[in-house]
Amino acid sequence: PAAAGRARGARRRVAAMAGSSTGHAFRVTTFGESHGKGVGCIIDGVPPRLPISEEDLQYELDRRRPGQSRITTPRNEADKAEILSGVLDGVTLGTPIAVLVRNKDQRSKDYSEVVVAYRPSHADATYDFKYGVRAAAGGGRSSARETIGRVAAGAVAKALLKAFGVEIVGWVSQVKDVECDVDPSTVTMEQVESNIARCPDPEIAEQMVAAIDGVRKKGNSTGGTVTCVARRVPRGLGQPVFDKLEAELAKAMMSLPATKGFEIGSGFSGVSMTGIEHNDEFTLDPEGNIRTRTNRSGGIQGGISNGEDIVFKVAFKPTSTIAKKQNTVTRDGVEEQLRARGRHDPCVVPRAVPMVESMAALVLADHLMQHYAQCCLLPGSELVNLEGPVEVEDVTSKHYEAMAARKAEEDAQAKADAEKGEEWGAAAAP
User: Fold this and answer.
1) pTM for this predicted structure
2) CA-CA to 1 of 20 to 30 Å: which in 17, 62, 115, 164?
3) What is the b/e burial string over 328-355, where b = at least 16 CB atoms within 10 angstroms of the residue's CB?
């Protein structure tokens, strides 16, 4: 009996490590398969009284949804978010937030071949190796539709971070051999969203679109890079040793589908420099704040944020599902050729931008809450960014004031409509 109890306990411990959750203080679990009834997330640990709405989530989901342009997958999904719990009157309750997005445009018949034949470089084979069973249609859990839950949760994390002055902006910095070289400190969301490539340089964006169109028309795919910057991040985020902030960001980014590389600050280019060339010298700005003259560290030193912009890049491989014939094997070990069907992105990076931003937001929100709980509870300690002490915006009061103003407008309109109706009634009376 004791041995049986230990075995049951071991099974329970393994089940708790199934890999669909991330974060500690701000914890997110995603669920669902590409061609199942729906996908979504559970967000736990969100502070109460944070204004959030389905519209806030929808803005981010619309940026990642399929069918938004000719250079993305033509699958037509509205990806409408439903908040099932944890929010009342537009503010969080402090209880778990459940978000559901229902799948509408599945075409499972397009995947009849890949039920038995593995797509080269896809997760088809490894899911079979691990589980012995898989949801083949649409890629199941390995599909990028899983990231809907991440982006929905990221919208909540962004709302929290915004109250602390933190801004996160990502953009496509490379498609195939077309590169965009811009100053990360100046890129705006408006510039990024001004074209379907999500590149802040309009001329380079046109070249990127042409490169994607070129492989799309040939039934092929290509890869690219997303660069992301987080501005006005408080100093002190990140834990020493195993939970360093750049390590957490790297894990978050490499957990996204199709990622193959991560670098922060100088990244791999730093290996060709000497110490005197690479070191970020400290200085004082005109207000007396400690700054660095350069930012080759990418805003993180010793695994802890230093207040400078956090800048990193994420490399995405070419989409593995293509309409070209490829050699493969079946589940039964028979060699054959496969030409995959279905609707897929010829290049994932334009839709990956909000995914990268969202994962950055989840990591930063989680570490902000951890840092505040450990280091800011006792007198004499406060949150500080590169501009000085962080003034947290009173988003709750603003929300309720806006609600009251809308209610007053609605009441006034209803009263005016009622009075107008009475006038019409009196005029129509015999």
Assistant:
1) 0.90
2) 17
3) beeeeeeeeebebebbbbbbbbbbbbbb
List, for residues 368-392, the tens digit of each pLDDT value.
Answer: 999 999 999 998 889 999 989 999 9
The Cα 385–Cα 381 span in angstroms is 13
Token digits for 26? 């701000």
Give the burial string for 94-127 (b: 16+ CB within 10 Å, else e): eeebbbbbbbeebeeebbebbeebbbbebbbbeb
Task: Dig out the tokens for 220 from the structure.
Answer: 């092929």
What sign has the CA pseudo-torsion 205, 208, 213, 214? positive
- For the chain, the average pLDDT equals 90
Residue-level pLDDT at 97: 98
Select the more confidently predicted residue: 243 or 116.
243
CA atoms within 13 A on the CB side of 217: 6
pLDDT tens-digit readout, 221-255: 999 999 999 999 999 999 999 999 999 999 999 99
**Residues 297, 280 contacting (CB under 8 angstroms):** yes
Phi, psi dihedrals of residue 366, rounded to the nearest 5°: -60, -45
Instruction: Indicate the burial class of 182 (C-beta count within 10 angstroms; 0-12, 13-18, 19 or more).
Output: middle
For residue 91, give both structure tokens.
Answer: 């503010």
Angstrom distance (rounded) from CA 30 to CA 255: 12
The one-letter amino acid code at 9 reads G
CA atoms in the 13 A half-sphere facing the CB of 90 = 13
Can you give the length of the chain in residues? 430
